[in-house]
Design brief:
Layout (H helix, E strand, L loop, with lengths): L1 E3 L1 H13 L7 E5 L9 E5 L7 E4 L4 E4 L1 H7 L2 E8 L2 E8 L7
Parallel strand pairs: 1-6, 2-5
Antiparallel strand pairs: 2-3, 4-5, 6-7
Length: 98
């Protein structure tokens, strides 16, 4: 499960409002298709059947199952440096190759 810091929760709730998504929609984290690196997100009404569920009543989180297998549980934070907003995902386990 991905948990959001209070700062990330507020930022994502603001973003959800800005794009016009209803308040009861959650945020779905997934790996982009086509060989792109990283993690992206979209606001959705319901999770995919195999998504890992989390979040709170204010903002539900859904994590693509294959992404969760790669990263595991993580904390999502939000940084706004010099006007450039960035989500930071901090896994709870060490992902470095052993």
């Amino acid at each position: 499960m991905f948990s959001l810091t209070p700062t990330a929760t507020t930022a994502m709730m603001d973003a959800r409002e800005e794009v016009g998504a209803p308040e009861d929609w959650g945020i779905r984290f997934f790996a982009p298709m086509g060989g792109s690196q990283g993690v992206t997100f979209v606001f959705v009404a319901v999770p995919e059947p195999d998504d890992v569920l989390g979040g709170s009543g204010k903002l539900r989180t859904y994590v693509e199952a294959s992404l969760h297998r790669q990263i595991g549980d993580a904390t999502v934070d939000f940084h706004d440096l010099d006007g450039s907003a960035e989500l930071v995902i901090r896994p709870h386990r060490d992902l470095r190759a052993r």
